[in-house]
Amino acid sequence: MTDDQLRDTGHSQTLARRGLSRRQLLAGAGIAAGAAGLLPAPARAQSKPPARPTGHVIIGFSQEPTVFNPLMPHIEVDQGVYWNLFSPLWMADQTGEIVAQLAAEIPTVANGGLSSDGLSWRVKLRPGVTWHDGKPFTAEDVKFSFDLLNNPKFRAWSRTGYELMQDIKVESPTEISWKLSKPFAPFMSILCWTFMVPAHILGKAADPNTAPFNNAPVGTGAFMWKERVPGDHITLAANPHFFGTGPYLEQIIFKYIPDLTVMFTQFQTGAIDYIGLQGITADHYGQAKKLADRNVVVGPAPFIESITLNLSKPQFREREVREALYYGMDNKSIIEQIYYGLPKPTSTYLPTQSWAFNPHVAPHEYDPAKAKAMLDAAGWKPGANGIREKNGVRLSFQNSTTAGNHVREQAQQLLQQNWSDIGVEMKIKNMPPAVIWGDYFNKSQYDSVMIGEDFMTGPDPDVSPYFLSTAIPAKGGSGQNTMEYVNPEVDKLLQAGATTFDRAARQKDYWQAAELIRHDLPQLPIFQYATVEGTRKGLIGYAPSVYVSVNTWNVNTWYWAS
User: Fold this and answer.
1) Does residue 504 come out as left (phi exceeding 0), alpha (psi in the -120 to 50 range) or beta?
2) From start to end of 143-268, where are the E strands?
3) How many CB atoms lie within 10 A of CB 117?
């Protein structure tokens, strides 16, 4: 479909709410429980969900989902699709509470599902669940999904936690058990983001990495795969046999709009019903909150905006260089002048809502004179065109981010000037999201990137996939440590924090790790996101959450007010 076909006038939206077909529509249209309550759901209108799926919602994303096997390396926008196609055993709701999905109940010591030492797990599955193709979902699918994640030939998104699993047994079609080789406190949260895949399809594939399933996924979620037009949109249709609540919509359309200004314009005109992920940029917030027939919400998000550095590059190997860059960064101007003061500055990687957030980490300080003195002392002397050099290496590098994000582009230009003032050359090289967040990022081919990342493991503050030295994909590790950061002391602290269930002990370990990472500066944190998102009035069910990466986690409960 073209933009004109997806554009939704007030008349066609009324038709959508009455449940007319997609063809008819287009014919008339061109971190922890302690943080609970921070972002309550908007008040629901006095209306009831429809008795059957009806209408559609167009979801605007500035990045294009491209990875449709949820167990393979992916980014946040892909998860926005997964929540609708697939299901985990359990998930964290808006308050951070773990609630059952494919599991019949959450395993606990009290119900016999979890041993007191955290090593033995026994999970009862919800009976009667089927895959989108009608085949039954069973414990064999759960075992297959875990085995696939631990298959060294499979490109797993992460093996953190999964590699501890031993003796995985199918006890019955609706019961599975396993043991962990050592206690691992974040595992319950890891499973919140572990979407199950079908053994009867992927198990027959010659190579799961390249299976047809990866472009035509089959899940157990509230919506089923219908079509994808690369570079434009993805359409999902209601699953009439979904095991949970809903779905109340006949279909959902993920519309890819890379230019954030264009996306906001389409939100204004009604071409999209929900503007998410990057959301409404700060420079449009004042205008957005005055729009008629729109609901605009500002709330905290788990993402931390930072300049992430590739430490394998010779320019960044010295800690003094990284610290000088941080002193040379005018964070205050970025936040106040470009982001209109909406986000809050930070110098660490966890959101303030997390119980493991360390409030004592040294704050950022903008001091260009100190930056220059530090580089001078480290032997980086001005050379040609004033760019510093040392041992034949110029202090020059590329910085990349998503093309079309005009706010980030403005921040890049400000940083470019900041660092030029201290004798550092930053060249801007932006790319489409499918390019930059593919191998370029995942295999550490970049110099530096401007990126917003959610470092938590669901509602758990474990950051092992991002900072463990064994989680470097470019060196054969499984994880998201694309900056190639290595600190044995941080490894020890993160491993210790993950192997005890004592929250006070975990907090102590994580606070120390945060201080070491702040000292080493493999990334230069700027701010914690204040996400501005919007929906068309009359859309019921939208509920932003700090515990997920994308707020399409509950589209199964969305519907249009009658």
Assistant:
1) alpha
2) 165-172, 175-180, 223-229, 233-238, 251-256
3) 11
| Joined tokens for residue 295 | 């609901």
Q: How far apart are CA 545 and CA 83, in angstroms?
A: 13
Q: Give the closest residue to 540 by CA, choosing from 99, 48, 53.
A: 48
CATH number of 300-529: 3.10.105.10
Element (H, E) at 560: strand 559-560
The full length of the chain comes to 562
Decide: helix, strand or coil at residue 498.
helix
Instruction: Tell which residue, 457, 447, 461, has the closest CA to residue 514.
Output: 461
HSE-CB at 63 with a 13 A cutoff on CA atoms is 28
Task: Give the contacts of 504 (CB within 8 A, at least 6 positions apart).
Answer: none
pTM, 2 dp: 0.73
Apex 318 CA angle, 312 and 321, nearest 5: 110
Query: Rounded distance, CA 231 to CA 245, Å?
Result: 31
Q: Write the pLDDT tens digit of every residue in 303-321.
A: 899 999 999 999 999 999 9
pLDDT tens readout for residues 275-310: 987 789 888 999 999 999 999 998 778 889 999 999
- Using alpha carbons only, give the angle 260, 336, 333 rounded to the nearest 5 degrees: 105
Those residues whose C-beta lies under 8 Å from the C-beta of residue 432, and which sit 6 or more positions away, are 64, 258, 402, 403, 404
Distance, in Å, from the CA atom of 505 to the CA atom of 507, rounded to the nearest integer, reads 5
Residue type, 321: V
Query: What is the structure's pLDDT at 16?
Result: 32
Q: How far is CA 311 from CA 245, 307, 387, 473, in A?
A: 46, 12, 20, 14
**DSSP letters along 51-79, please?**
SS---EEEEEESS------TTSS--HHHH
* Region at 247 (left for phi over 0; alpha for psi -120 to 50; beta for the rest): beta
Centre a 10 Å sphere on the Cβ of residue 336 and count the other Cβ atoms it contains.
13
**C-alpha distances out from residue 297 to 8, 42, 170, 239, 430, Å:** 22, 9, 45, 29, 29
pLDDT-derived band at 548 (thresholds 50, 70, 90) equals confident
3-state secondary structure of 299: strand
Strands 251-256 and 233-238: antiparallel
Quote helix, strand, coil % in the chain, to nearest 5: 30, 20, 45
Instruction: Retrieve residue 418's tokens.
Output: 């900041």
Q: How confident is the model at residue 11 (pLDDT cuts 50, 70, 90)?
A: very low
Q: At what angle do helices 503-520 and 319-327 cross, to 10 degrees?
A: 90
Q: For residues 551 and 532, give the distance between their C-alpha atoms in angstroms, rounded to a whole number.
A: 11
Residues whose CB falls within 8 Å of the CB of residue 443, separated by 6 or more in sequence, listed in order: 473, 474, 482
What is the pLDDT at residue 44?
45
State the Cα–Cα distance between residues 132 and 88, nearest whole angstrom: 15
Q: What are the structure tokens assigned to 159, written together? A: 């093996």
Does residue 59 contact residue 254 with C-beta atoms inside 8 Å? yes
Of the candidates 415, 336, 434, which has an alpha carbon nearest to the alpha carbon of residue 61? Answer: 434
